[in-house]
Design a protein that fits this description.
The chain is an alpha+beta fold. It has two domains: 7-149, Probable tRNA modification gtpase trme, domain 1 (Gyrase A, domain 2, 2-Layer Sandwich), CATH 3.30.1360; 197-270, Beta Barrel (Elongation Factor Tu (Ef-tu), domain 3). 15% of the residues lie in helices and 33% in strands. Strands 1, 2, 3, 4, 5, 6 and 7 form a seven-stranded antiparallel sheet that branches. Strands 8-11-10-9-12-13 form a six-stranded antiparallel beta barrel.
Length: 278
């Protein structure tokens, strides 16, 4: 029996370091995970607006001298500029200039991307080239497809100034028991009163009569467009079908497992492997 070869996700990300004795306290106050009491060497977390909207998905590497902040999804310049603006004069916190880091992670089709540990290599690491050449790396198209199936949000698509992390299936990146952080009041309110209005879903269309000239990204209950139930946020083409991500109103999720798009016809929706909701 042939052994199935493991697959790996390799991507280069922007990164910056946070130095100073108040570094953990500072990041704890502006991200959704518990940075102060984390027992992990790497923590995945979110950066939100004061109103709880997702601005960036980040990963923090803990070391003895500093914390490295990896921008998995987000605008690096905006993040560094905003972080610098909210450092108080009394804070012992210094941000480095941004640099690149290579991130490698084993992946599969049945578990969340957040369940696997990643390895990190700085730009001039001599071991990086030797290590990566031994791995079965996903090509660019397969990686995009895998990310869609995992519902990993993209900048200006799912991270668009409107959606919060609970709607995007990132509940496990929110610590509801830690102290105050940016966007905490909104996150607590949504969790406590169950006011989540929409959820992210993976969609697929096998219809061959696409009309890309149309600009209507809405999803409807039927071809008569009687009720709008959500909106397509991202689109990915493959040889045999088109798929992507969509934000769907929660009250319609239990009624149907497919909807209608003016552009893509009948579309099937499903929950992603990586999504967790309240």
């Amino acid at each position: 029996m042939q052994k199935i070869k493991k697959k790996f996700w390799l991507e280069k990300f922007d990164c910056f370091s946070v130095y100073g004795k108040d570094a953990k306290k500072f990041l704890n106050g502006i991200t959704t995970s518990n940075i102060l009491n984390s027992e992990n060497k790497v923590t995945k977390t979110c950066w939100l607006t004061p109103n709880g909207v997702l601005r960036a998905l980040i990963e923090i590497i803990f070391s003895e001298r500093n914390l490295d902040v990896i921008i998995l999804v987000g605008n690096t310049k905006e993040i560094i500029d905003q972080f610098n603006k909210i450092i108080f004069p009394a804070d012992d916190v210094i941000l480095s200039a941004p640099f690149s880091i290579n991130r490698i992670q084993e992946i599969d089709e049945v578990s969340s991307w957040r369940s696997h540990k990643a390895l990190f290599f700085k730009k001039n690491d001599k071991e990086f080239e030797k290590y990566k050449n031994k791995l079965n790396l996903l090509n660019s198209n397969d990686l995009k497809l895998w990310k869609v199936n995992q519902a990993i949000p993209s900048l200006d698509m799912e991270i668009n100034g409107k959606n919060n992390p609970l709607e995007l299936g990132l509940k496990d990146l929110i610590d509801f028991n830690k102290g105050c952080y940016l966007g905490q009041e909104t996150m607590s309110k949504i969790k406590n009163v169950s006011s989540l209005k929409q959820e992210i879903r993976v969609w697929q269309s096998f219809d061959s009569n696409f009309n890309f000239k149309l600009k209507d990204k809405n999803l409807y209950t039927n071809s008569a467009k009687e009720k709008s139930v959500g909106k397509i946020t991202s689109i990915l083409k493959s040889d045999s079908y088109i798929q992507g991500l969509a934000m769907v109103k929660r009250k319609y999720l239990d009624e149907e497992d497919y909807f209608y798009s003016e552009i893509f016809g009948k579309i099937i929706i499903r929950k992603s492997v990586g999504s967790l909701f309240p």
